[in-house]
Amino acid sequence: MTKRTAPSRSTALDSPYGLTAGVAEESGAGSADQLSTAPADDNGAPAFGVISWLRWFWRQLTSMRIALILLFLLALASVPGSLLPQRGTDPAKVDQYKSNNETFGPVAEALGLFNVYSSIWFSAIYLLLFISLIGCILPRSWQFIGQLRARPPAAPRRLQRLPAYATWRTDAEPEQVREAARVLLKQQHYRVHTHDEAVACEKGYLREAGNLVFHVALIVMLVAFATGQLWRSEGGKLVVEGDGFSNTRTQYDDFKSGTLFDPDSLPPFGFTLNEFEGTYERTGPQKGTPRTFEARVSYWEGADGAPRRTTITVNNPLEVSGSKVYLLGHGYAPIVTVRDGKGDIAFQGPVPFLPKDSNVTSAGVIKVPSYRDRNGKESDLGFQGLFVPTFAGTGSGSMFSQFPALDYPVMALTAYRGDLGLDSGLPQSVYQLNSKNMKQFTNPDGGKFRQMIRPGETLTLPDGAGSLTFDGIKEWATFQVSSKPGNGTVLVGAVAALLGLSASLFIQRRRIWVRATPDTDGSTVVELGGLGRNEWPRLPEELAGLATALRPQAPPRPMPPQDTNHPADADTAEGARA
């Protein structure tokens, strides 16, 4: 038995299987169009005419080169969305960034870098990539289906010219050898067809199937991403311990949604924050670092759903009614009781203060509309407050905290009287005090009134204007309720893309022919030839394995004396010399 591997030829690129053009034409083994579903790459200039230019443009757009360029541009265009604050996510940070970068800020605004994913240029890249992939996949899919329905081509006349080749003589009948080869190749999952004196087989179509799956998966991910952007909804809510939230539009502190989202389609659910617990590192170089944030809630689903208890942590959101409830942050809400000049309660309850640093030094506002002084005159009352969970003294005219836990809480308040502007009809933040139409209280000596108090203490306003009692402290947590359809589809598409890419990289398409012909001396000449795409290095090994498996049904006989006039022997001798 003789096996050989043909040396590389300079014309091997003429065929994706490494077969020279002359052999391909001679054997009918198939051209490049038959062995690959990749569209022809047309780099030449189009002929004159609108139709010719449109055809040329379409071929360029649907080429693999342009698709890769668009994919790279899409990834590159996403970088500003990760590095710069986005107006759709945090408009306050965008305004702060522009104020801190007076030169680059206006340029970034003009280029749409603060609205990357809704900008015209990002959408253009996105749509072009989408069209390019569809235009590439459709013709390749039809061509691939045609290849699956086609039979393996007939064997070339000279198998010894193929990159992998083996031959021997046997006393078995040609029909017996061909049937044994057909059964053996079928068992090894080859597509088999018998042509005259040869058995043709083909394997590795999953390579092109994987390639198509990869491209289809990219389209699926693009569609899912677009669906998520168009129908998404996202809102934030600050909830104090003991308070609840219901998933209606008016309950959100801030709310953003996609273009096609219907606010009336919000699923009915809600939850109550029963308790929030945060722990911090007490010693060492990481002192003050958060260790655990846990929000213990009772949630219900549907209008008549029974309450169920669960714990939401930073990396463990609550999933309910197709939405996810994330825990974003926390802070403190001093509980105060404000009495007017006649001793009646004008306001009572917790007031959330917003953190300013990692030690939860917090600022807040207490607003008391329709307040009455000791003479019964109505006006508004406002307090500008600063809260520290662990008092560490004052610096630069303001107190600060040295630890985020409630070790020694102190609240400092500045009081104002006048018009809060709540009746103006203009929206107003509950965390800011507009003191334009208000007058600050002063001490008897004329100095500005400001006082620090601890839980259980009472602040008395000048001139018998009333009082404020610091009753205690509750904690609050901020939650983000997010609904983004298509996330599951994106995951499926990503997994399919990885599987398809793996198949296209590691599965090799190859063709093998087994020819059995009678010789003049009564023996049967068995020839095996293999052709692998991209000159697959393991093809000779696979062909040798097939030859070894076929030997029990076609045992080799001793080689007769070499006859240089016999074409088969001459080819065998030529292969042995090579």
From TrEMBL:
Short name of any one Pfam family annotated for the protein: ResB
Bias type Basic and acidic residues, positions: 566-578
Domain ResB-like: 64-543
TM spans (from-to): 66-84, 120-139, 212-231, 488-507
Alphabetical UniProt keywords: Cytochrome c-type biogenesis, Membrane, Transmembrane, Transmembrane helix
Chief place where the protein resides: membrane
Membrane topology value: Multi-pass membrane protein
Region: Disordered, residue numbers: 549-578
Keyword Cell wall biogenesis/degradation belongs to the record: no
Protein name per Swiss-Prot or TrEMBL: Cytochrome c biogenesis protein ResB
Organism: Streptomyces bacillaris
